[in-house]
Amino acid sequence: MRLSTLAQLLLLTSSTTVAWTTVPNNANTCRSLSQTTSLNASRGAKKWSRKKAWLEKRGFTEESEPLSATTSTNSSSETSSSSSSGLCTVVGGGRIGSLLSSKGETILLKRGDTIDPDGSGPILLATRNDALDSIVDNCPPNRRKDLVFLQNGYLDTFLESKGLLDNTQALLYLSVPALGVEAVDGITSVNPEGLTASTGEWAQALSDRLGSLDLKCNVVGMEEYRPAMFEKLIWISTYMLVGTAKSCTSVGQAGSDYTALVESVVTELVTAVSKKEGISFPEGTMARLAAYTDVVSDFPCGVKEFEWRNQYFYNLGDEECPIHNGLLRECAEGGKLGFELP
How far does the signal peptide extend, from start to end residue (predicted)? Predict the structure, then answer.
């Protein structure tokens, strides 16, 4: 959309306030109707000026289409806090960020870009976990409630430290093998409805956007989301760890060649989480995780982002997670970790 068009829309929506005022009239005072222009018009102009400068920095001009922002028309005309219509901000131009910005009206922010303080709608964070701290700290305070966390791993400690535990979160059970390549959805023989789930204010907006990409996303409450979050944490912590310890080339090989070991670790971690968090997992955890592994069987193994993934279980101690922690030490002794264990 051109800036001139946006300006016209802004002017059309500027409001005029009708107010009753008391004015003197020589010998007597009478009440008259005085139509005064609201300060909203001048405030709106200032706000538009700031937004115009912000958009121009990202490639919007009076005569051209946006450069660093990806725009496309969404067929939905609904406008609500839970809808995907309207402007959506995506932070991160990698595989997931590029996927999410390929449909719908979107501003795609990359390294060095800033979040518009006057904007609205969901802000989808499609970045690595280690980028979250600076993103949150640099986010305008009034927009922090709009941040949507899409990262793998255990985020509770981080979110609590930032006062963002109530923000929208999502579990993305999908794989994008390479930039621009079609995504593989987490639809399995056990869960044909898909495993991707989201909770929070912008969960429906995310679900709608993924739906426009022919990807499934279940909108759930926190009570249902929490065990699902730990289940995904268990999947990535188990298959990556077993695969690395046993020199597997993929999660599929880890699951097929070391089935008994994978099942032992999953059972151990489910029990440990249930005890620590007081969470009851729905029956069939192993079947769900094994079925998802079949969908992304070629995904390579590697113990990464330790502080966001395996460290949660490692910190529970050897009494609760002896197999898991033993495999971590085995990897460390074999030089298969890119970090030192605490």
Answer: 1-21
- Give me the pLDDT at residue 7, please: 38
Q: What is the crossing angle of helices 222-245 and 259-277, to 10°? A: 140
The 10s digit of each residue's pLDDT in 89-127 is 999 999 999 999 998 999 999 988 999 999 999 999 999
pTM: 0.77
CB 107 within 8 A of CB 69: yes
CATH of the domain spanning 88-220, picked from 3.40.50.720, 3.40.50.1780, 2.102.30.10, 1.10.1040.10: 3.40.50.720
What digits encode the pLDDT tens for the residues 82-96? 444 558 999 999 999
Handedness of CA 15, 19, 24, 25 (dihedral sign): positive
Question: What are the start-end ranges of the E strands in the chain?
Answer: 17-25, 28-36, 88-91, 106-109, 123-125, 147-149, 168-171, 174-175, 184-185, 197-199, 218-219
Could you state, in order of their start, the residue ranges of all structural domains in the chain?
88-220, 224-333
Distance CA 20, CA 272 (A): 68
pLDDT at 33 over 50: no
Residue that is written with structure tokens 């101690």 in the block: 317
Q: What does the alpha-carbon distance between residue 340 and residue 312 come to, in Å, rounded to a whole number?
A: 15
Computed over its alpha carbons, how large is the radius of gyration of the chain? 25
